[in-house]
Amino acid sequence: MKKNVLQLIIPLLLITGLLYASTINNEKLKYSKISSTKVMQDEQNHEAFDKMMDVLTHKRCVNCHPNDNVPKQGEDSHPHYFGMTRGQNNLGFQATKCTTCHQNENNNFSGVPGAPEWSLAPESMRWEGLSRTEIAKSMLNHENNGNRTHEEVMHHLTEHALVLWAWTPGVNANGTPREQPPIPKNEYIKAVKKWFKNGAVIPEE
Known about the structure:
- This protein is mostly helical.
- The protein is 48% helix and 4% strand.
- The strands form two sheets. It has a two-stranded antiparallel ribbon with strand order 1-2. A two-stranded antiparallel sheet has the order 3-4.
């Protein structure tokens, strides 16, 4: 009798153990799958952020985002000639407005760069000297960016003619081509859109 009972109990214990182990394994697999997906998303977000910031911290951008109201020029980011400063509406002063020299396109004869709406960035968007994360935080701060939504900031970064000028910067007065940002334009636009699509998460310093 005892032998028969044991013959019934042992298989039941084995089945119960297998079911329990299977449940644990499924939970581990599920957890592992979620974790690996999260890690992959974080890596993609960080990569997109880095590509975007490689452009936004390049001299083609930062020269027009000074921290002292003085536009910068050239590959060495020296202060603008002729004593130019921010002036009225980020366009200089009456006698020395930005648009006095900077037209809607580059002048490859004089070496003066140009693009539509040429001007300094607003004073609230001073980037010179800031870290990547500080620039990103400022860019998304409604008090700094003119109360723009993420969609509007993304539009500015990927479609505004003055931003995209960075990839067609023309030549200087000596005829030497200006340096372009280190990321190709299409790759930069794709990275910006991916970063915003993933929630515009700013990595920690």
